TrEMBL record:
It comes from Gossypium hirsutum (Upland cotton). InterPro entries: Leu-rich_rpt, Leu-rich_rpt_typical-subtyp, LRR_dom_sf, LRR_N_plant-typ, RLP23-like. The keyword Repeat applies. PANTHER family: LRR RECEPTOR-LIKE KINASE, LRR RECEPTOR-LIKE SERINE_THREONINE-PROTEIN KINASE FLS2. This is Receptor-like protein EIX1. Keywords: Cell membrane, Glycoprotein, Leucine-rich repeat, Membrane, Receptor, Repeat, Signal, Transmembrane, Transmembrane helix.
Amino acid sequence: MITMSSTRSRKLVLFFAISCLLLHEICTDASVCKESERKALLEFKHSLQATVFSGNDALFWISEECCLWRGVYCNSFTGYVEMLDFSYQPLVVAGTISPSLLKLHHLTSLNFSSNDFNGSLIPEFFGSLKKLKLLDLSNANFRGPIPSLLGNLSMLETLRLGGNGRVFNVGKLEWLSHLSRLKEVDLSFTNLSNANDWSQVISHLPLLQKLSLRHCDLPSISSSSLSIANSSTSLTYLDLSDNNLPSSAIYPWLFNVSSNLVSLNLSSNRLKGPIPEAFGNMMAIQELYLSDNLLILAENQVWGDSVLNEIEKLPDFMVLDLGYNLLNGSISKSIGQLSNLQVLRLAGNSFDGDVISEAHFSNFTYLQKLDLSYTSLTLKLNSRWTPPFQLTQIMLCSCKLGPHFPDWIRTQMGILTPDHYISYVEYLDISASGISDSLPYWFWGSFHGLKYINMSFNQISGTFPNNSIHISHLDPSSNNFSGPLTRFSLDYNMGTINLSKNKFTGSVSPICNFTGAVFLTLFDLSNNLFSGVVPDCFGSFPFLTALNLGDNSFSGSLPSSLRSLISLEMLSLRGNKFSGVLPSSLQNCAKLKFLALSDNELSGEIPMWIGQKLSSLVFLSLQGNQFRGRIPHQLCGLKYLQILDLSVNKISGTIPPCLNNSLPWQKK
Ligand SMILES: *[C@@H]1O[C@H](CO)[C@@H](O)[C@H](O)[C@H]1NC(C)=O
Ligand SMILES: *[C@@H]1O[C@H](CO)[C@@H](O)[C@H](O)[C@H]1NC(C)=O
Ligand SMILES: *[C@@H]1O[C@H](CO)[C@@H](O)[C@H](O)[C@H]1NC(C)=O
Ligand SMILES: *[C@@H]1O[C@H](CO)[C@@H](O)[C@H](O)[C@H]1NC(C)=O
Ligand SMILES: *[C@@H]1O[C@H](CO)[C@@H](O)[C@H](O)[C@H]1NC(C)=O
Ligand SMILES: *[C@@H]1O[C@H](CO)[C@@H](O)[C@H](O)[C@H]1NC(C)=O
Ligand SMILES: *[C@@H]1O[C@H](CO)[C@@H](O)[C@H](O)[C@H]1NC(C)=O
Ligand SMILES: *[C@@H]1O[C@H](CO)[C@@H](O)[C@H](O)[C@H]1NC(C)=O
Ligand SMILES: *[C@@H]1O[C@H](CO)[C@@H](O)[C@H](O)[C@H]1NC(C)=O
Ligand SMILES: *[C@@H]1O[C@H](CO)[C@@H](O)[C@H](O)[C@H]1NC(C)=O
Ligand SMILES: *[C@@H]1O[C@H](CO)[C@@H](O)[C@H](O)[C@H]1NC(C)=O
Ligand SMILES: *[C@@H]1O[C@H](CO)[C@@H](O)[C@H](O)[C@H]1NC(C)=O
C-alpha cells in the first residue's frame, strides 16, 4: 500500500467512488460527508416532519455518513452534496422546507417529484439556490403562485412544475424569460390562464428543446404580442394539448418554431378548418397528434392528395393521430407512402362508405397500433392476406369487418421475431363490426394471452376452451356464444369479464377455480342460460364492484360468501329462481348503490339492516318475490335512495311516512 504510486491510488479512489455511487446502499466505508452539510441536511429533514423518515434504517438519515443517505448524492471527489432526489419514495410532508438547504453551496439538482407537500407554497429561497441546473417539483402537491425569484436560477436547464393541480396558478411567466439556459420546461396541469405572455417568453428561450403545457388553460396569443422574428427553433418536443386554443392562436407561432420539431401534440384544442399544408414543412417531425379538434379536408381534397402528399416527404414519420375530427370523404391509397408509420389513428371521423383494402396497408411494415374505430370504414381484406405488420393494438370498433370473421387477425396473434421474442397483439377490439360467423378454430389455439378482447355486439357463435383463459378484459357480450363457463385466469391488472347476452349454459362452479380472482372488478353473466346453485366462492373476489347474475335460471339460496364482496357497488340477481331469506351476510356489502333482486322466489321479512347498513343505496328492487310482513321504518335511513320497488310481494301494514310521494318509487 505504501509503495503505491499516486496514479494508482487515484484510480483506486475513483473506482471506490464509482462503486459507491452504483452500490449506494451497501457502501459503508467512504467517509466524505462534510459536517456543515450534514447539519444542514438534518435541519432540513427535521423541518419537513415527513413520515417516511421515521424508520430505523441507517439510510433514513441517521448514520454519520450523509453521502450514503437515501436521496443524497455527493461529488465523489469533493464530497459536497450535489443532488437531492426524493422521488424514490413518496414523502408526506407536514412541515415547511427549511432554508438550511442554502448551506449546500454545490447543489445542482433538486428532485422532489411525486411527493406530497400538502399544498404548501414553493419556498422563495429556492430562487437563491444559484447553482441549480435541475429543479423538479412536479406532482408534489405544491401550491402557487410560483415565486418570481425562480427567475434568478440562471443556470437552470430543466424545470418541471407540472401536475400540481389547477389551484396552482402560475401567473405571468416574465421571470421564465431570464432562464436562458433552459432546455426543458414542464408546466402541465397548472393554471396559466393569466400568462398571456407565454408565447413571447417561450420564443425567447434560445436552447429550449422540450416544452409541455398540457391542460393549462392557456390564453390565446394575440397577434400583436407575437414577436416572431426571434423565435427559438430549438424546440423538438412540444405539447400544447388540451387547452381549447383556436387555430388562430397556434398556427402563426407554431409554424415559425417548428423546423426542428420531432413530436407535436395539439390534441383537444379548437383547431378548425383544413389541415394546413405547413405541417409538411416540419422536416424532422416523427409524431403528430391532432386528435379532438375540428379539422376538415378542404373542398375537393381527398386524403393523400393534399396533406399526405406533404407528409409523405417526411422520412421518419412514425405517428399520425387525427382521431375525432371532422374528416370525411375517402382515404387515398397513397397513405401507404408513410412507410415508417408505427401508429395510425383515424378513429372518430366519418369516412362513411369508404373501403380500405390491402393496398392501403401494403407498405406498413412497422405499424404497431391501428385505430380506425367509429369511422364506418369497410375493411375489405382477403382471407388469405398476410399483413406486412405485427400489431400490438387493433382497434376496429364499429368498422365493417363482417360477415366473416377476419382471418388475417390470426397472423397477429403471435410470432417469433428475429430476436426470439414472441410479439403479439395485446389489445383487440372488433366490437360492433357486423361479424356473423363462428369463432374460427384457431382463435383460442393461437391465443397468447391478450390483455383486452372486445368482440361484443356481433353474431359470433362458438364455445370457450376447456383450459383456462388468461386475460384482463374480456367482452364477448351480445353474441351467440354457447357451452359451459370456462375457467379464467386474471392478469395482474384490474380486469373485467362480461359474458352477458349469450347462450352459455350449465353451472357456474368454475368461478371457484378462477386464478387471480382478486383482480376482477366487473363480472357480468346476465342474460344467459346458466343454471343450478351459485357456489359459495365469492371469498376470493374482494375488489369486485359489479356482479350481475341476472336473467338466468339459478336456484337455491344466496351464497353467504357474498359477505366478502366489500367493494361491491352493483349487484343484480334479478330474473332467477333464488329462494330463501336474504342472508344477513349481505349487510357487509356496505358500498352497494344498486341492488336488484326482483323476480325471484325470495321470502321472509324485509330485513331492517337494509336501511341501516346499506346506506349508500340509490336503487333497491325487491319486486316480484315472496317477501311478507311490514316495511321496516329503517328504510327511511336510505338518504340517497331514488328508486324503491317493493311491488308484487306479500307486504302488509302501513307505508313509513318518510317515503313520501315525491320519490319516484313504486309501492304495494
Ligand atoms: C425526478 O425523479 C423521477 C423519478 O425518479 C424521474 O422520473 C424524473 O425524471 C426526475 N426528474 C428529472 C428532471 O430528471
Ligand atoms: C395539511 O395541511 C392542512 C392545513 O392546510 C393541515 O390541517 C393538515 O394537518 C396537513 N396534513 C399533514 C399530513 O400535515
Ligand atoms: C435576484 O436577482 C436580482 C438581480 O437580478 C437581485 O437583485 C436579487 O437580490 C436576487 N435575489 C435573490 C434572492 O438572490
Ligand atoms: C385559474 O385561475 C383563474 C384566475 O385566477 C381563475 O379564474 C380560474 O378559475 C382558475 N381555473 C381553475 C380551473 O381553477
Ligand atoms: C431579436 O434579436 C436581436 C438580436 O439578438 C435583438 O437586437 C432584437 O431586439 C430582438 N427582437 C425582438 C423583437 O425581440
Ligand atoms: C396528447 O395529448 C392528449 C390530450 O392531452 C393526451 O391524452 C395524449 O396522451 C397525448 N399524447 C402523447 C403521446 O403524449
Ligand atoms: C413566420 O411568421 C411570419 C409572419 O407571420 C410568416 O411570414 C412566415 O412565413 C413564418 N415562417 C414560417 C416558416 O412559417
Ligand atoms: C364532408 O363534409 C362536408 C360538410 O362538413 C360536406 O359538405 C361534404 O359534402 C362531405 N364530403 C363527403 C365526401 O361526404
Ligand atoms: C410503397 O412504397 C414504395 C417505395 O417507397 C412506393 O413506390 C409505393 O408507391 C408505395 N405503395 C403505396 C401503396 O403507397
Ligand atoms: C366493448 O365495446 C363496446 C362498444 O362496441 C363498449 O360499449 C364496451 O364498453 C366495450 N367493453 C369493454 C370491456 O371495454
Ligand atoms: C373438454 O374436456 C372434456 C373432458 O376433459 C372433453 O371430453 C371434451 O372433449 C373437451 N372439450 C373440448 C372442446 O376440448
Ligand atoms: C376446482 O376447485 C374445486 C374446489 O375448490 C376443486 O375440488 C377442483 O379440483 C378444482 N378443479 C380444477 C379443474 O382445478
